[in-house]
């Protein structure tokens, strides 16, 4: 029951009464901080220490994911640029016989971008499958929700970095033909 505090005759009753207010809210500290600032102090359930612990674990997981993704993409970048430079002799031979630079750029782009983008997306899908399987085996009967926003963010970053690395290999392979490269071929 909700009674306005200025209701006649209510003030003497409120002096001796103990009252509680319950507020349901989403996770986070924002509502608790706002209530504390407004002068409403109280207890939260569950305790915010648990929330802080889970938030810390989430930060650790995202940091590890970023480090692993960074190391994997850096490894691919080094390997792709090395392969592109090693393939330079073949590219010079194709340019000498009249292949257009556009065709060579598209071939290099496709050769570098396609496996990387597909590999990143398949790796993310495998991690989602492994995580869902683990949570289903360990957890209760309720299936774990798929973190769509986080997965889309990770996939977007992986695809963007893969395309950037593929672009670097295209730049590394398409330069002017030097006379000594033609003589060597």
Automatic annotation (TrEMBL):
One GO CC term, this protein: plasma membrane
Domain of life: Bacteria
Topology in membrane: Multi-pass membrane protein
This protein's UniProt keywords: Cell membrane, Membrane, Transmembrane, Transmembrane helix
Domain (ABC3 transporter permease C-terminal): residue spans on this chain: 63-170
Entry keyword annotation includes Amino-acid biosynthesis: no
Keyword Transmembrane helix: yes
Record's subcellular location: Cell membrane
Ranges that cross the membrane: 60-81, 112-134, 154-173
Chief location of this protein within or outside the cell: membrane
Protein name, entry field: ABC3 transporter permease C-terminal domain-containing protein
Source organism of the structure: Nostocoides australiense Ben110
């Amino acid at each position: 029951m909700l009674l306005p505090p200025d209701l006649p005759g209510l003030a003497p009753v409120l002096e001796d009464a103990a009252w509680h207010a319950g507020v349901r809210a989403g996770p986070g500290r924002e509502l608790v901080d706002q209530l504390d600032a407004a002068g409403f102090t109280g207890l939260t359930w569950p305790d915010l220490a648990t929330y802080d612990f889970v938030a810390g674990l989430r930060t650790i997981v995202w940091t590890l994911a970023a480090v692993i993704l960074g190391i994997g993409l850096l490894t691919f970048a080094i390997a792709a640029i090395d392969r592109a430079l090693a393939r330079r002799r073949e590219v010079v031979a194709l340019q000498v016989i009249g292949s257009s630079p556009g065709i060579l750029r598209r071939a290099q782009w496709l050769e570098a971008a396609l496996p990387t983008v597909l590999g990143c997306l398949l790796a993310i899908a495998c991690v989602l499958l492994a995580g869902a399987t683990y949570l289903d085996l360990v957890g209760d009967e309720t299936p774990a929700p798929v973190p769509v926003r986080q997965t889309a963010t990770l996939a977007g970053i992986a695809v963007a970095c893969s395309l950037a690395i593929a672009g670097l290999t295209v730049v590394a392979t398409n330069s002017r033909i030097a006379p000594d490269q033609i003589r060597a071929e």
